[in-house]
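Quick one: tRNA(Met) cytidine acetyltransferase TmcA from Halogeometricum rufum, structure tokens please.
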Amino acid sequence: MHLRSLAADLRAAARDSNQRRLLVLAGGRDAGIDAAFDVLDGADVPDDEATFVTAREGFRFERVHPTHAGTLLGTTRTAVVCDAHEAFSPNVLGRLAGVVAGGGLFVLLAPPLDEWPERDGAFEASLAVPPFDAADVGGRFRTHLAATLRTHPGVAVVDVDAGTVERDGATDAPPARGDRSPSPPRRHDFPRAAYDACLTADQSRTLAALERLRDPGAAVVVEADRGRGKSSAAGLAAGCLAAGERDVLVTAPSYGNAREVFARATDLLAETGSLADHDEAAHVVRASGGGRVRFADPPTAATLPDDPDVVLVDEAAAIPVRLLAAFADAPAAGFFTTVHGYEGTGRGFAVRFRDRLDESDLSVTDVRMDEPIRYARGDPVETWAFRALLLDARPAVDPLVADATPESAAYRVLSQDELADDDHLLREVFGLLVLAHYRTEPDDLGRLLDAPNLECRALTHEGHVVSVALLAREGGLDRETRRAMYEGARVKGNMLPDVFTSQLRDEDAAVPVGYRVMRIATHHAVRSSGLGSRLLSEIRAEKADGAEAVDYLGVGYGATPELLSFWDDNGYSTVHLSTTRNDTSGEYSALMLDPLTPAGRRLHDRHADWFLDRLPGVLSDPLRDADPDVVRAAVRACDAAPPLELADREWRVVVGASFGPGMYTTAPDAFRTLARRALNDDDPPCSPRAERLLVGKVLQGRPWPAVADELGYHSPRNAMKALGDAYADVVKRYGADVDAVATERARFEE
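--- reply ---
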């Protein structure tokens, strides 16, 4: 079959079904590019409706570099040509798969499929983190990808070197196109123009459900796969609410994620004559009646600034649960989440947050959007992308693992070859890892299968994965690499050694070999049953006694009191709190170590000691706004004993402020030293509320009115008295054998 004829047939089939077709041009790069021109001509694709995504230059068509493929999100093309010969990655594939409109072609330029697994590219080079090199990187993901191209319906494969058609891209009879003429509900309060803007019946039904947000006490949860128009529905609802004089706060992982929301809201307000102003730089749209639509990043939005009437959370699955929980305090809230997609996982959203939403005072309405906007249901390119990138990977169904216990589960070392050879196992593992992290990308699948520094461990119950951990080998770096890191070079794949070396100025930190727990997840049906702890215990035993010399286990994550307690209970000790917040989670990161050898113990001890030593300084400056409960948990989880070196005069000042008329401001360093010791004690001398007072006032130096208000004291004076009472308990615990303390206490107690 002639290539132009094949392209014409594929385009005709795509048009007839309002679906897309995928054409693979396998072989040499130059031959593939030449063939792509023939395909676009044969398929009758206008030049301005086609885009080449390639590192090459010199095309008459629009050209986008693969590293900028994300700029095409939210746009449509009749044809996209993806050059997989250079700068290609799983992420690029995931971003482009939804850009082609129904009736169009997705063209993939690839090396010969038999040879592709052995070809190294930019993505594979990025996996060769020190001390590994390119020869250590596997080709399992590319093997998996090539297999899907050879077997999936709707995928045509042409050998451009031999000029032969290996697959013609035939599919079974396509389904009906679906409802493309939605009508508004018989009764509606939003303007008719908003419903006329809906492209599918799903969108219209979703918009009708979002009308509930006009009234306080309502929450609407919208779940959809990519390309279903949920962001457009959110934008139409935002515009309607603003026209109704509501103050609508929109949040998303970034403004770019919410751009469609603002575009649709602006268009609707303009069409209905209600647009007063659109300030793109300030990310705010104002309606003529006083309503507005404004954007704030998740950490800021979680504070509900300026008391919005409604909060709309787009890509909610990509926002940590701690922040999502704050939005349940809004008068009304809408949550929009992707079920299957690299932006995040709706399943993770449902598992980790939905129970909290149901416990709130909001009345929750659920909406599911299934009808694609850009193409008909059953589209073969979409189903191929799900299969190739495991976007629809899920853990085992609940009944299969509901009886799992730490005693019944079996510990398994899962090699990358084993994962690649067992699709069922891979899907269960990857499905759980997706739930463990608020943002999982297709690149993560490639890393899981091919990165030489990654290892996978799991607990299984009757053959099904119930808990899984992804480990990253770090450290063991040569002198030259350590010196470069110390002098500011970024060394990939070595997060803990990088922080210890470049930020904490420990040039020897990358000598010991460690394994960092990148992710750990337990099946939602058996959470809080001890399986995660059992898995960590097995990993520790394996690494402590294995053939490879492993000096420590480590972890780094956005710190919450619950997570700090979990890792502390499993033998990990705090050695660092970051001094900047994560842009998306709004949390400070904790680094923790569990030493396994004398070298690991030395690394741990010097950083644990220094963490406590510098604590008063960082808490009074960069960590002044840190949650006192996070600070309490981090300090208590630090396996080090801060020295108590107070002069008699300092002891007398503390006793005077605790039992007499003295003031702590006379010698604040003495009070900080004692506070640090009290917070680090496994048997604390103070109540949790008193400990929060030690953190907020003594260590963070926050104003008395603010501390009193946050901790629920009636007045600053009450808080001052409580601080004196707290230090009375501290003095009794740590000054019992100090003569100056006994003498001073006797004066006041008599």
